[in-house]
Write a structure and sequence with these properties.
With 345 residues, the protein is an alpha+beta fold. The chain is built from 17 helices and 10 strands. The protein is elongated.
């Protein structure tokens, strides 16, 4: 039933090139379209393995049409693919069960193929991702989790006739500089708010509490270093994988102060704000060693030139202050929360 494992993006490229595209060319010659593997999925981020094949992995595509062509042809294309797609590509089934379920698994079939070719338009797909058309507003950027931005800009585009999908990916490739300063400042602020806690917990004999807060601070540092490297931090399952791929990622996150100093030097090297001395120091008159991360947040905030960004509360993007999957997974709800918190619309 299955072939040798290969990265999903490679399998999907073969699926488009050898199975979907020939059928489109015969039945709908010259039909303008884009084809891509983007959106949710470990394969989109390049983190898939043989384990990933047990659900929502396999020969998949999103097929983008114009609004007029989608209205005219989407049902016919879907029917054609169900009837004519090959049952396997490189040994992997193109049929998924249960039909139309949220989680689906490749399954062999002798009948019509319940395929994973999603037919849509770029505007409709964008609203599904962002909760609204993406126009580069502060709410577009800050009401969108970095996981969703990664899903939009990672993956692969195999064909794009009119360039609309490519343009969307270019528009969301990275934050505008002042928004970047703002989310970096918010990430440094997270560290500033808790950096003395491991020392205080140790002094109080709360070793478990110290481990918990140290792990939390290490997570803040990992997300910060990804943001510094212009990479959207993925959600928790893939955060360590993404961080490990960074140049110089082999820092010891158990040595938080050493990690702070290295991250501070990286911050200075970006040239986004005034240089801040990247050395540890005592926490006021207490003997706990910290980096005094608020200095970096203040320098970044002072360097923001856009008045609209400078006026925002120091909370950052939606997933810098919300850690609830059910909320972050609902685009309209998270956008409404961000609008209320940021005081924007």
């Amino acid at each position: 039933m299955t072939g040798a494992f290969l990265l999903g993006l490679t399998l999907c490229e073969v699926f488009y090139r050898d199975a979907v595209r020939p059928l489109l060319d015969r039945a709908y010659p010259g039909l303008p379209h884009a084809a891509a593997r983007i959106g949710p999925g470990s394969d989109v981020l390049g983190y898939d393995s043989a384990r990933s094949t047990d659900h929502d992995w396999g020969p998949r595509l999103t097929l983008f049409l114009s609004a007029a062509d989608a209205a005219r042809h989407a049902t016919g294309i879907d029917t054609m693919l169900r009837e004519r797609l090959p049952k396997h590509v490189l040994g992997w089934p193109t049929h998924f069960t249960p039909p139309d379920a949220r989680v689906r698994v490749m399954t062999a079939t002798d009948g019509p193929v319940a395929h994973r070719v999603d037919i849509t338009t770029v505007p409709d797909w964008t609203v599904g991702q962002f909760g609204a058309p993406f126009r580069g507003t502060l709410l577009d950027w800050l009401g969108t989790p970095t996981q969703v931005l990664a899903e939009t800009t990672a993956g692969a585009v195999y064909h794009d006739d009119d360039g609309d999908l490519t343009a969307l990916r270019a528009a969301t490739a990275w934050y505008p500089d002042d928004v970047w300063r703002y989310v970096l400042a918010a990430q440094w602020t997270h560290i500033a708010q808790e950096e003395a806690f491991p020392g205080r917990a140790a002094e109080a004999g709360d070793h478990l509490g110290g481990h918990v807060v140290t792990a939390r601070l290490a997570r803040h540092v990992m997300r910060l270093r990804l943001l510094q490297a212009r990479r959207y931090p993925p959600y928790s399952k893939w955060l360590g994988t993404a961080h490990a791929a960074l140049p110089g990622a082999g820092i010891d996150l158990d040595d938080l102060c050493g990690a702070y100093e290295d991250t501070g030097r990286r911050q200075n090297a970006l040239g986004l704000a005034e240089t801040v001395e990247a050395t540890r120091r005592a926490y006021f008159d207490r003997p706990y060693q910290v980096i005094d991360a608020g200095r970096y947040a203040a320098a970044l905030t002072a360097a923001i030139s856009d008045p609209a960004v400078a006026a925002l509360p120091p909370v950052g993007g939606i997933d810098q202050y919300v850690d609830n999957t059910d909320l972050l997974g609902r685009p309209a709800l998270r956008r409404a929360v961000a609008a209320a918190v940021l005081g924007t619309s």
